[in-house]
Specification:
single chain, about 300 residues, alpha+beta, three-stranded antiparallel β-sheet, about 60% helix
């Protein structure tokens, strides 16, 4: 058996031999960074679906102000747009939630304990927030039964009717209990605590904030491990650069056993994108209290 670093190109660069222990450490570090990037990508996709939902709300609100069309066709099209945006967001969120525990426990000696902690974060959100429980149940309703948006309305008001020319435009879209109850598979405990209608805009914002909170706390559990993994990969590239006397942007990790060759490319450029996502996606704890253009 032989373990070494090499650029993996057809040039005459020498092979830098390492020990089996060094090989396993570098390989595990690279695998952890790959998993961490994949996890950050999932959350970013979820956040972008939520962003699209908010943009759709704003677009419909403005459209209804500028184009006074109250036909059934317009109502149907706008409701369909809200259905589509809601569907995209809650299904993307499902993907994040279902993979959190397995992703953040990857390559960890105490994977079982990490999984239990993350499941505890999710359970705490479920137990303390009706909106979280409702959107979880609504997601299953959307996937297995039917739509979630049963009505929407727009309104305009002045914050100060006498002294301000400013007009606030609002859009409200709801899920109605009478429609939800037609689905016999809807979770009974959630249905029992549901009011006659639920304002989906507010509920979905609370849900997004909860997912962000759980994601940030789950990420913190592996922060030191992921940082150490990045240092390990960076150090391997640096060691090879010093060895061959030429700066290397990336190298390849090899395990050679007779004719069998296993290789892992070590490249920090993609991990730079993980760091960028990490920095741009902190916990959005106050999201439910934010109003975009007072919608």
């Amino acid at each position: 058996m032989r373990w070494y670093l090499h650029p993996g190109t057809l040039d005459n660069n020498p092979k830098f031999d390492i020990t089996e222990a060094e090989y396993e450490k570098i390989r595990s570090a690279s695998a952890l960074l790959t998993c961490a990037l994949r996890t950050e990508e999932r959350f970013e996709i979820c956040k972008r679906y939520f962003y699209d939902l908010e943009l759709e709300i704003l677009a419909i609100t403005l459209e209804n102000k500028l184009d006074r069309d109250f036909s059934y066709e317009r109502f149907f099209e706008n409701r369909l747009k809200l259905e589509k945006a809601t569907f995209g967001f809650v299904t993307a969120a499902k993907h994040v939630i279902e993979k959190l525990a397995s992703d953040f426990s990857s390559n960890h000696a105490e994977a079982k304990e990490i999984k239990q902690q993350i499941k505890g974060f999710l359970s705490a959100e479920y137990d303390t927030s009706f909106e979280y429980r409702f959107v979880e149940a609504l997601r299953n309703h959307i996937l297995h039964h039917g739509g979630s948006v049963h009505g929407y309305s727009t309104s305009a008001s002045k914050p100060d009717p006498f002294n301000s020319p400013v007009v606030n435009l609002r859009l409200s879209f709801t899920a109605n209990k009478s429609k939800i109850s037609e689905n016999s598979g809807f979770k009974k405990t959630v249905l029992n605590e549901m009011p006659e209608s639920v304002e989906l805009k507010s509920a979905l914002r609370v849900y997004m904030a909860a997912i962000s909170r759980v994601f940030a706390r789950s990420r913190d559990l592996r922060k030191l491990d992921i940082t150490a993994a990045r240092d390990t990969v960076t150090d391997a590239i640096s060691r090879y650069s010093t060895f061959c006397g030429t700066p290397q942007r990336y190298v390849t990790l090899y395990s050679e056993n007779g004719g069998d060759l296993t290789k892992t490319q070590l490249l920090t450029d993609w991990d730079d994108q993980r760091i960028r996502l990490w920095e741009r996606n902190p916990e959005m704890s106050n999201l439910s209290n934010v109003f975009l253009l007072d919608t």
